[in-house]
Each structure stands twice: as C-alpha cells, then as structure tokens.
C-alpha cells in the first residue's frame, strides 16, 4: 500500500480509531471541550477522508458546558456489528465511559449509555464471535469518580451488556506493556487463531510507542511480543514524533496498516508542535505470528491546502467548531455574512462567542473581513483560555493581543475603518542562527482595508502556542470571535503553505 498522505488527517485530530465495514472505512477522533464532538470520517481507499458527521451534536450527550480544559471527549473506539455502529469513549471529567450507537455512521448517534461504575479511559470494544460476549478493555486512569488520584490501574477489562451499560464481570487486570509509563489505548484483535492486545505505552509525549501481546482468549492471559515497543519515534530525529495510540486495519489490497497519532514538532530542536496531535498512518505486517509496524514517515499531501467560507449557507459547515457550546448557539449565518453577538465573554473565559477552524499546516495564513461598526470582535488563534493570540477591532481601534499563561501584552492603533480585513499568518522563524530558529514559527497580526495598506501590529513567538508549552491535548484553532455587540464577518480565507 503506497501513496498515502501523512498526516492522513492534519491538524488536531488525536487518538484516531478506525473500522472497516465491507469496502468502507470509518474513522473517529477525540475532541475534548470542542463541539460538535467526535468527528466521523469516511474513506474507501484509506487515503481520501471525508467528514460525514459527528457523534456529539446535541446537548446532553456529553457534560461539555463546564468541562475543564482538556476534559471532555477522550479517545473513541469505533466498531461495527450486525448493522450497528458503536463508539465507546470516555467523557473525561464529565459523564464517564459511554457507549454510542448508530445505524448510519453519519448520524444521528444515540444519547450515550454510561458504562456503570467503570472509571477508566481509552475503552476498546470487541466481541468473542464464539459466544457473542462483548469485552470492553480500557486503561485504568480514573478521570470521573472524583476520588483522589490513587495511581494508574494499567490495562483493565470487563464483559458488558452493551444495551444497558451494565458490567457483567468485575474489572480484571491484563498485560500492561513492558513497564513504560501510562499503558493505554488498548485494542483487541482476533487473527489467525490468536487474540492480540495492542496498547500504547510511554505516555503521549516524545516517549510514546506501541506494544503488542497475544493470547488464546479475549480475556487473556496475554504474553508480550518480541521487540516491544514495536514502533516508537523516541530519541529519533524523525519528522513525525510522539507516534502511538494506534488502531489496526486491513487495507483494500489485503495488506495491513496502523492508524495512530503523532506530532510534527518544529524549531531547531524539534521542540514545539503548533498543530498538536494529528492522525497518521503506517504499514504493518504479520511475521512469525507477531505484528510488525513500520516507522511513521511524512508524505506531504498535494491537495487540501485551502478553506474559504463566504457564509452563504443557512448553517455553518461542520468544519467549524466552538468551545463547550455549539457553533449554532453563537453564530447566525447566511446571505454572505456570519454574525456573532458578543455577550461580554472574552477568550479568557470558558465559553467565548467563538467559532473556529483547526490549523492544519505549520505555515498558514488566515484572513477575514470584519464589520465592527456595532461591536468588538476579531480573528484569533487559540490553544485554550490561557494561551491565545488575536487581532481585534471595534470602538475605533484595532488591537493585537498576546496571552500566554494569563500574561498579556497589547498593541493598539486607530482603526483605518469600521470595515477592515484582519490577517493572521504563521511563518517560519527568520534568521539563520540556531538561537533564531529555536522557535517553531512566528504569528504575525495585521490589518488592512480590503487587502490594501496592510499594517502589521505584532509579530509573536509561536512556541507559546504549542502543545508542549500549553501542556494541552488539543492543537491550534483559528477562529472568529465577538466580545461586545454584533460583529459581522465575511470572506473567511484559510491557506496552508506546507503540509
Ligand atoms: C487519551 C490517552 C492519552 O485518552 O491522552 O496521553 C488522552 N494519552 O490515550 C487524551 O488524548
């Protein structure tokens, strides 16, 4: 299997899970505090993926309204059986472990059935075809009981009644890797008479990797394979780092592949990942009864660099996301304008009036025309409430602002007009010395009137809006926001320069 783009799905799409149903493939990822939640992608060739819908599209499916940053929708597993699609996932610091079902993967999905009294993450779902027993295998990290942290429980497993969410057995411990930290992201596969348990270990940072064990029954015992972790980028200078949290799939040509998360840290010492954890793919094969997984290599895509929205449709496209509430709750769109009604909340708060689009290229630029004659709002790039850069217009001024860990700096100019175009560019760091190039990129904030007389207000160091600096599970999201009054946006343009 060759010619697959890598990243497969650029931008923050972490903890990918994939299922093959006939000649179709479906893939889902984590979304944390962003809504709509848990996107579902479709493909027929493992190469071209189309967003077909979201699992979480209405209030009540997740406890999103007040979820802490980095909480929410963690690490889905998507599977299919007897005409029903299943997604098991953890609503971290929210409702807990949940089972969602649908007959159409584009939705609607069910409200979500709680797996009772099971406080773990990264649930996997597998059935023993011999007797139809359903197994949920998960990582023993408690994010939902509210009890004080009492250590990591390793890989655990229950049998479960999927219709009620009732566990049918007590949790039992399974093989949990080679001893590296954070054994997680377990998946069970039946192949050639064995049951294989694939996990991530080493943590989702640079030490991440995948290890495999096998046994003769879905409940184990499992014996670790040779050469674990069988894939990891740790201590290498590979472009794609943090590789782990994978899911195995058979390709259209019968060969095997593993879809997993990874990061593309930039800067002279590969230290800062603006885009967060993305979805990647690599080839795999069975050798002597064990799974071999190849290192994850970059394969720049030759398409998909641009996204433009003229807001002519009555509803926003599903590419737009919002924070702890739905885009439709804050955005009024149609007839070529997107209007956001500010409610006084700023980007420092839990639920700003903000709609965003994931940055998908390390070098990229976005622009939007803003009519702020009746309000204050602008264009931003954010990781979370404590880490965001924006350019804002309204009240006769235009202001560039940088917020890092709550520390703030502003640059203000008189606004050239109430209707301006705001620009946000992520460019490689200039200079030739090592010190110059330590950072990942610069974020340049500028204003123009219909593209003319572009005035730069600020040039900010991009390392502070990175997964490593923000200690975040997400990635950069470029977005439009309003703080006060009605702010009207038109002609949003996003262009990636490289993949
Ligand atoms: C995910 C787990 C992880 O559930 O982070 O660090 C969690 N590893 O596998 C959120 O992405």
What features would you describe in this structure?
- By secondary structure, this protein is mainly β.
- It has two helices and 37 strands.
- Strands 24, 26, 27, 28, 29, 30, 31, 32, 33, 34, 35, 36 and 37 form a 13-stranded antiparallel sheet that branches. Strands 10, 11, 12, 13 and 14 form a five-stranded antiparallel sheet that branches.
**If helices are DSSP runs of H or I spanning 4 or more residues, what is the number of helices?**
2
Approximately how much helix is present in the residues?
under 10%
Sheet with the most strands?
13 strands, antiparallel
**What is the end-to-end distance?**
21 Å
The total beta strand count reads 37
Helix/strand/pairing class, anyone?
mainly beta
Bound molecules: (Z)-L-Arabinonhydroximo-1,4-lactone
β-strand percent reads over 45%
Uncertain spans, ≥5 residues at pLDDT below 50?
none
Radius of gyration: 23 Å
Mean pLDDT across the residues is 95
Overall outline: globular
What is this structure's SSE topology?
Elements: E1 17-21, E2 24-28, E3 34-35, E4 37-43, E5 50-56, E6 72-81, E7 84-92, E8 96-102, E9 113-114, E10 121-128, E11 133-139, E12 155-161, E13 166-167, E14 172-173, E15 184-191, E16 194-201, E17 209-215, E18 223-224, E19 231-232, E20 241-250, E21 256-263, E22 278-287, E23 290-293, E24 306-309, E25 322-323, H1 327-330, E26 331-334, E27 337-341, E28 353-358, E29 364-371, E30 375-384, E31 387-394, E32 397-404, E33 407-414, E34 419-427, E35 442-449, E36 452-461, H2 467-470, E37 477-496
Antiparallel strand pairs: 1-2, 2-4, 3-25, 4-5, 6-7, 7-8, 8-9, 10-11, 11-12, 12-13, 12-14, 15-16, 16-17, 17-18, 17-19, 20-21, 21-22, 22-23, 24-37, 26-27, 27-37, 28-37, 29-34, 29-37, 30-31, 30-37, 31-32, 32-33, 34-35, 35-36
The protein binds (Z)-L-Arabinonhydroximo-1,4-lactone.
(Z)-L-Arabinonhydroximo-1,4-lactone binds at residues 14-15, 30, 74-75, 121-122, 184-185, 203-204, 245, 473.
């Amino acid at each position: 299997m060759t010619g697959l783009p890598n990243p497969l799905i650029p931008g923050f799409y972490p903890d990918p899970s994939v299922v093959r149903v006939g000649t179709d493939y479906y893939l889902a990822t984590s979304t944390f505090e962003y809504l709509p939640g848990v996107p579902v992608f479709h493909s027929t060739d493992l190469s071209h993926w189309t967003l077909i819908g979201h699992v979480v599209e209405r209030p009540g499916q997740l406890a999103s309204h007040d979820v802490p940053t980095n909480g929410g929708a963690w690490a889905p597993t998507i599977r299919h059986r007897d005409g029903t699609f299943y997604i098991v996932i953890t609503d971290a610091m929210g409702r807990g472990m949940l089972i969602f079902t649908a007959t159409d993967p584009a939705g609607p999905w069910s409200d979500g059935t709680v797996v009772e009294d099971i406080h773990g993450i990264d649930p996997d779902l597998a059935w023993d075809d011999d007797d139809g027993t359903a197994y949920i295998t998960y990582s023993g990290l408690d994010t939902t009981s509210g009890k004080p942290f009492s250590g990591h429980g390793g890989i655990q497993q229950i049998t479960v009644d999927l219709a009620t969410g009732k566990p049918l057995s007590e949790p039992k411990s399974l093989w949990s890797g080679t001893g590296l930290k954070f054994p997680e992201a377990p998946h069970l596969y039946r192949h050639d008479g064995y049951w294989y348990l694939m996990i991530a270990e080493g943590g989702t940072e640079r030490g991440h990797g995948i290890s495999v064990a096998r046994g003769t029954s879905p409940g184990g015992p499992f014996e670790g394979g040779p050469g674990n972790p069988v894939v990891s980028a740790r201590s290498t200078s590979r472009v794609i780092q943090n590789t782990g949290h994978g899911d195995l799939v058979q390709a259209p040509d019968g060969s095997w592949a593993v879809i997993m998360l990874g990061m593309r840290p930039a800067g002279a010492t590969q230290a800062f990942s603006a885009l967060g954890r993305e979805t990647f793919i690599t080839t795999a094969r069975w050798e002597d009864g064990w799974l071999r997984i190849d290192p994850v290599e970059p394969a720049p895509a030759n398409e998909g660099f641009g996204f433009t929205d003229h807001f002519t449709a009555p509803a926003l496209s599903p590419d737009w996301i919002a924070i702890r509430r739905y885009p439709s709750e804050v955005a009024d769109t149609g007839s070529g304008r997107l209007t956001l009604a500010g409610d006084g909340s700023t980007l420092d708060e839990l639920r700003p009036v903000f709609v965003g689009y994931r940055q998908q290229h390390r070098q990229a630029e976005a622009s939007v025309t803003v009519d702020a004659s009746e309000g204050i709002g602008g264009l931003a790039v954010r990781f979370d409430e404590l880490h965001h850069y924006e350019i804002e217009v309204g009240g006769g001024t235009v202001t560039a602002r940088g917020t890092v860990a709550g520390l703030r700096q502003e640059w203000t100019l008189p606004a050239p007009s109430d209707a301006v175009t705001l620009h946000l560019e992520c460019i490689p760091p200039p200079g030739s010395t090592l010190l110059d190039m330590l950072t990942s990129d610069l974020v340049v904030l500028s204003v123009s009137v219909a593209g003319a007389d572009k005035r730069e207000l600020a040039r900010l160091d991009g390392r502070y809006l990175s997964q490593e600096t923000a200690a975040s599970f997400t990635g950069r999201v470029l977005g439009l926001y309003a703080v006060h009054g009605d702010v009207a946006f038109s002609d949003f343009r996003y262009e990636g320069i490289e993949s």
